[in-house]
């Protein structure tokens, strides 16, 4: 299990190391404005040279990541594994809580891109404040631990539900 | 704060306080299901208990008299207070008075009176504890009386009648007695997605719990097409099914479940919805605290990757005797 995550996280690390070479680049469309190219126009004929093709990294069908590099910004989106309703609930709650606190995280996109649970948006200005390796380590830490955390929470909720049920049924059985 | 204890803790402490201090004041405790309990100690030495809930008339018509006979026959039934459906009173002065030790009493008499005093004090304490228990669990007694009456009737070999009552705004409880069993159908409805998911999880565990609990009653998910339910309450066929609601059925048998202790069983049955709600709330609290803890860890690790702000080098101005900066 750990080895499988390691392969996935190594792939993300190497891709991020390659894509997080950002520089300030004023928009060619909106004059005198420096906007993240990946957010501004996405993939179009006008921005073909500034926005690279997205890189998809999948650990499984439901657990995947897309890295969208551009000249002055990179968008990284993750989909959290959800096998059942409880998984989906915990994943949604986690993403929602993170999104509410997006201001504190700076590199977090307030709204994830469609089909994904959480999105990070790293701009060239972020690299002036944070070290590249630090940001990569933060994202890898997220990838490696989120799965473990969510299964831990799920396990505890299931145990709690089992004890609750046993107490109730025990009470009905007059034990 | 939500509690699943059959006795209302607030009322429990307040009743003892009112009786002991003989303090004429009013205590109002509101609970789920729009139920409300009011305590009032009047200067004439009577403690009044009033109770109301949104489905009062429905349940009172099923087993109201049974509840009064079983739990409140020692108290005086008064005219209901304004805004309430049921009022009982207890005469606090009915407690025995402790004898006083006279000044000219001998040592032997003093010891005897002291002993009587202790005895009376213990009796009064017992009486007040009974009042406290009966008054503080009026909500439990009221809701459980319908089940207790059915169990009693089946135990005595009488024909118990079927009943249904609205437990919440869009939830109904159906009870269908048999010769030696009672079938109960709970309609459970949660509109919030998180509540719904957690309720499903707990209900699934309750259904599976029979593997680990001895003499567990059969519990399963059901629907309005159930033949037992349809034959007892034909109107359910025309019911407009709420997509958020689900039906859970449990069958309790006379021999295994309610031949001995019907009080405990009824407490669990009347509080099933509250029990679910309480544990859903507990799971949500846990989920919240874990996520918040993890997010603060993420936040800390992100802060650690910030570059340290450059500290400006301070230069000292050194003046020589010629007045030129060095």
Automatic annotation (TrEMBL), chain A:
GO terms for biological process: actin filament polymerization; Arp2/3 complex-mediated actin nucleation. Keywords: Actin-binding, Cytoplasm, Cytoskeleton. The keyword Cytoplasm applies. Signal peptide: none annotated. GO terms for molecular function: actin filament binding. One of its GO terms (cellular component) is Arp2/3 protein complex. Its main location: cytoplasm. It comes from the Eukaryota. It is found in: Cytoplasm, Cytoskeleton. Functions as actin-binding component of the Arp2/3 complex which is involved in regulation of actin polymerization and together with an activating nucleation-promoting factor (NPF) mediates the formation of branched actin networks. Seems to contact the mother actin filament. Belongs to the ARPC4 family. This is Actin-related protein 2/3 complex subunit 4. It comes from Paramecium primaurelia.
UniProtKB/TrEMBL annotation, chain B:
It is found in: Cytoplasm, Cytoskeleton. The keyword Cytoplasm applies. Transmembrane segments: none annotated. GO terms for biological process: Arp2/3 complex-mediated actin nucleation. Keywords: Actin-binding, Cytoplasm, Cytoskeleton. Pfam families: P34-Arc (PF04045). GO terms for cellular component: Arp2/3 protein complex. Functions as actin-binding component of the Arp2/3 complex which is involved in regulation of actin polymerization and together with an activating nucleation-promoting factor (NPF) mediates the formation of branched actin networks. PANTHER family: ACTIN-RELATED PROTEIN 2_3 COMPLEX SUBUNIT 2, ARP2/3 COMPLEX 34 KDA SUBUNIT. Belongs to the ARPC2 family. Component of the Arp2/3 complex. This is Arp2/3 complex 34 kDa subunit. The lineage of its organism: Eukaryota, Sar, Alveolata, Ciliophora, Intramacronucleata.
């Amino acid at each position: 299990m750990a080895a499988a995550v390691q392969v996935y996280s190594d792939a993300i690390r190497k891709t991020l190391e390659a894509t997080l070479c950002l520089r300030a680049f004023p928009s060619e469309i909106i004059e005198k404005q420096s906007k993240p190219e990946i957010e501004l126009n996405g993939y179009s004929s006008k921005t073909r040279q500034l926005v690279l093709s997205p890189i998809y990294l999948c650990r499984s069908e439901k657990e995947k990541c897309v890295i969208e590099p551009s000249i002055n910004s990179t968008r990284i989106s993750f989909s959290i594994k959800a096998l059942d309703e409880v998984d989906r609930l915990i994943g949604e709650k986690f993403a929602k809580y993170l999104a509410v606190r997006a201001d504190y995280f700076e590199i977090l996109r307030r709204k994830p891109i469609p089909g994904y649970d959480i999105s990070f948006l790293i701009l060239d200005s972020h690299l002036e404040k944070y070290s590249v390796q630090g940001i990569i380590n933060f994202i890898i830490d997220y990838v490696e631990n989120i799965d473990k955390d969510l299964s831990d929470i799920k396990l505890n909720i299931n145990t709690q539900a089992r004890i609750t049920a046993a107490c109730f049924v025990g009470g009905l059985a007059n034990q | 704060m939500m509690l699943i204890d059959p006795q209302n803790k607030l009322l429990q402490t307040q009743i003892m306080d009112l009786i002991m201090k003989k303090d004429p004041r009013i205590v109002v405790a509101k609970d789920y299901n729009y139920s409300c309990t009011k305590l009032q100690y009047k200067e004439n030495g009577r403690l009044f208990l009033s109770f109301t809930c949104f489905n009062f008339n429905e349940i009172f018509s099923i087993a109201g008299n049974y509840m009064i006979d079983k739990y409140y026959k020692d108290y005086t039934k008064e005219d209901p207070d304004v805004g309430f459906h049921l009022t009982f009173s207890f005469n606090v002065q009915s407690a025995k008075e402790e004898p006083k030790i006279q000044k000219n009493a001998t040592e032997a008499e003093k010891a005897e009176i002291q002993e009587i005093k202790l005895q009376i004090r213990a009796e009064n304490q017992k009486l007040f504890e009974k009042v406290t228990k009966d008054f503080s669990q009026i909500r439990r007694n009221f809701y459980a009386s319908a089940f207790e009456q059915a169990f009693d009737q089946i135990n005595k070999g009488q024909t118990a009648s079927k009943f249904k009552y609205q437990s919440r705004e869009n939830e109904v409880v159906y009870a269908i007695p048999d010769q030696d069993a009672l079938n109960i159908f709970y309609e459970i409805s949660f509109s919030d997605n998180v509540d719904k998911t957690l309720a499903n999880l707990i209900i699934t565990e309750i259904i599976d719990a029979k593997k680990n609990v001895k003499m567990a009653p059969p519990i399963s998910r059901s629907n309005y097409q159930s033949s037992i339910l349809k034959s007892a309450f034909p109107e359910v066929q025309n019911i407009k099914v709420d997509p958020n609601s689900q039906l859970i059925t449990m069958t309790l048998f006379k021999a295994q479940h309610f031949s001995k202790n019907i009080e405990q069983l009824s407490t669990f049955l009347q509080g099933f919805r509250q029990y679910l709600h309480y544990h859903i709330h507990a799971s949500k609290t846990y989920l919240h605290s874990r996520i918040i803890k993890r997010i603060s860890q993420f936040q800390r690790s992100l802060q650690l990757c910030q570059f340290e702000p450059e500290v400006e080098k301070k230069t000292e101005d050194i003046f020589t005797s010629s007045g030129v900066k060095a």
